[in-house]
Design a protein that fits this description.
Elements (H helix, E strand, L loop, with lengths): L3 E5 L3 H12 L3 E5 L3 H10 L4 E3 L14 E4 L5 H14 L5 E4 L6 H4 L9 E5 L9 E6 L5 H13 L3 E4 L9 H17 L5 H28 L1 H11 L11 H8 L16 H34 L1
Parallel strand pairs: 1-2, 1-4, 2-3, 4-5, 5-6, 7-8
Antiparallel strand pairs: 6-7
Length: 302
């Protein structure tokens, strides 16, 4: 049976999600007031249904399996859109927000049926990174969360259900803790951005991809970690405000890839390297998932 998903937003995340669900065999609709963004997306995925407003969708979409909100991180914009989604979609339709850090309590503020809302935090590029952090609203029954989990798993994602809600969930907390120290090292003149990137990529990065932080600490030895933590923690950054370097770059419009400059100049060569890295990441994830699937099948036969 073909499944239906509606994506609210045709930005970077909406585009990635459209590619992911289309590749997984879902019927996909994308809703965004920006006609140019919709047309650009449909050129690469002609089978998509596109609309500038929910009201422009045909009635059969009102009973879609899943609706995912993927608009900018502005609470008022998200709550308004979620309220409109509730008015259009039938009561059994699951609604997920792709927020990176807002709470379910805030998102449910204008909803009549908060029991169908969960946060589904996908990662960019959304058609490549497997994990999705899931946070159920306080009103969502366990069976509805399980329904959402199985739907996402069926699309090829790896749902990770959090036991309780915290700002930034898990990945963003870890990512920002790491970036706080990276920016601190940059601000202190310890190393430049390219050197820090190289060290992280070819030491922590390659190890963590295969073991995770706790698995790596077990391999290293918890006693070794404790001994280093005792003398290193007091010297780590504990800044409570964003880095001055980061604030300056944003103020001058150097936003990264999307503006053409950030910590790097995003010329054709840099773009080509990034695209090659994304393709390599996609291939690696596919290889690992196939290996895990094969190992599970062999284990089941033993």
């Amino acid at each position: 049976m073909r499944r239906y998903v509606v994506l609210l937003g045709a930005g970077v995340m909406g585009q990635g999600l459209a590619r992911h669900f289309h590749r997984a065999g879902f019927q996909v609709a994308v809703v965004d007031p920006n006609a140019e963004a919709l047309e650009k997306l449909q050129k690469s995925l002609p089978e998509l249904t596109i609309a500038q407003d929910l009201a422009a969708l045909s009635a059969n979409w009102a009973s879609a399996d899943l609706v995912i909100e993927a608009v900018p991180e502005i609470l008022s914009l998200k709550t308004e859109l979620l309220a409109r989604a509730e008015a259009f979609f039938s009561a059994q339709v699951l609604i997920a927000s792709n927020t990176s850090g807002l709470t379910t309590a805030d998102l449910c503020r204008n909803m009549r049926h908060p029991e169908r809302l969960a946060i589904a935090h996908f990662f960019n590029p959304a058609d490549v990174i497997p994990v999705v952090e899931l946070v159920a609203s306080a009103q969502m029954p366990r069976e509805r969360l399980e329904q959402l989990t199985e739907l996402l798993r069926g699309s090829g994602k790896e749902p990770a259900v959090l036991h309780r809600e915290v700002p930034g969930f898990v990945a963003n907390r870890i990512q920002h803790a790491m970036m706080r120290e990276c920016l601190h090292l940059l601000d202190q003149g310890v190393a430049d951005a390219e050197t820090i990137d190289s060290i992280v990529r070819w030491s922590l990065g390659v190890r963590l991809a295969f073991t995770g932080p706790f698995g790596q600490r077990d391999l290293n030895g918890l006693d070794t970690h404790l001994n280093i933590a005792g003398y290193l923690y007091p010297d780590l950054s504990a800044a409570q405000t964003p880095s001055a370097t980061l604030q300056a770059k944003v103020a001058e419009g150097a936003l990264g890839r999307k503006s053409g400059a950030g910590f790097y100049a995003w010329d054709q060569a840099t773009q080509a390297r990034a695209q090659a890295a994304e393709a390599a990441l996609d291939a690696l994830i596919l290889q690992e998932s196939q290996g895990a699937s094969s190992a599970a099948q062999q284990g089941g036969q033993n």
